[in-house]
UniProtKB/TrEMBL annotation:
Presence of keyword Acyltransferase: yes
Superkingdom field: Bacteria
Organism: Microbulbifer harenosus
The protein's name: GNAT family N-acetyltransferase
Family annotation (Pfam families): Acetyltransf_1
Domain N-acetyltransferase: 1-146
Length: 146
């Protein structure tokens, strides 16, 4: 079952956020900072929203969508910035359901598309994405710390 993360359920999602950050080898994971940051996405806002997947009362996955704009198509777009399922629940369609839910959320909020990136070595995730009729970009992703 997918539900929008609320202030009450955020505490249930934070351990998965930590696991997601550890999976991507984030330095200095901070639960307090995570709580403050992800509180912005409880409920629906102009910034975006966070969703959880609950299986038999346990939160087993989550996804976060942020809104931004792009001048190449002069439209609002949605960024699927986080997608995570606990390892023992992978392969059961949870990631696919979360992506589909985020796509509908993006569409319902006027976004022209939903887009995301993943690590080149995250082959399991790429297998899912490739099976969904998505378009894979040939663009390179750069970051610049400020």
């Amino acid at each position: 079952m997918i539900e929008q993360v609320s202030r009450e359920s955020l505490e249930e999602v934070l351990p998965l956020v930590r696991a997601y950050q550890e999976f991507y080898k984030v330095q200095s994971v901070c639960d307090k900072r995570n709580f403050e940051f992800f509180s912005k996405f409880c409920g629906s806002s102009e910034q975006g929203s966070q969703f959880l997947f609950r299986k038999e009362e346990e939160v087993v996955g989550f996804a976060t969508v942020y809104f931004t704009f792009t001048s190449t198509i002069t439209s609002k777009i949605a960024i699927l910035n986080d997608l995570y399922t606990l390892p023992k629940f992978r392969g059961n369609g949870i990631g696919r359901q979360l992506i589909d839910h985020c796509r509908e959320f993006a569409k319902g909020n006027g976004a022209a598309r939903l887009q995301w990136v993943t690590a080149p070595d995250n082959v399991a995730a790429q297998k899912l994405y490739d099976s969904m009729g998505t378009s894979k970009s040939t663009w390179h992703f750069y970051t610049y710390s400020t």
